[in-house]
Amino acid sequence: MAFLVATVVLVGLLAAVNLVFTLAVVRRLREHTELISKMGTAGPMRGATMLPAGQSVGAYTATTVDGATLSADDRDGPELVGFFSLGCQPCAERLPEFVASAADHPGGRHRVLAVVAGRDDEGDAQTFVDDLAPVARVVREDMGGPLQKAFAVQGYPAIGVVDESGVVVVSGTTMPDLAPANA
């Protein structure tokens, strides 16, 4: 009988300890959820996929898939820029909208820059390049390449308009995010 009482007490104590740990985990998850929800609104770069409006693009040099060399000093007017990652479903979904907008961008292909980021084993880079090449100067680079660093790209897709002096006019993840600059 004493053995049965000891076993019941031990199981009860283990259940109480488990309950305390479970409540601690729930409290910690609530704290993390609150911190994550605040990330989108705190600080100038939080929630941004690239440099926000008013920030200057850094220096860069890159080569397009056509073999042309680009640099930050080559701008002669407002430039539409788009960054797309291989294997990124939102990138694939928003690509046709970017291509359509790029086709109508003032200055034509010369003032549209598209970057396809990632390793070839991550997705079909050629499909992205084939869709973008008629309307944009296309650059292929690995993740963290010079253009991505210059534009402080932190997520994909990243789309923006840069003025002739290299200052971001507007940025976002969809073409409607750029509406004030295209109006």
UniProtKB/TrEMBL annotation:
It comes from the Bacteria. Gene3D superfamilies: Glutaredoxin. Transmembrane segments: none annotated. InterPro entries: Thioredoxin-like_sf, Thioredoxin_domain. Signal peptide: none annotated. Residues 51-183 form the Thioredoxin domain. This is Thioredoxin domain-containing protein. It comes from Virgisporangium aurantiacum. The lineage of its organism: Bacteria, Bacillati, Actinomycetota, Actinomycetes, Micromonosporales.
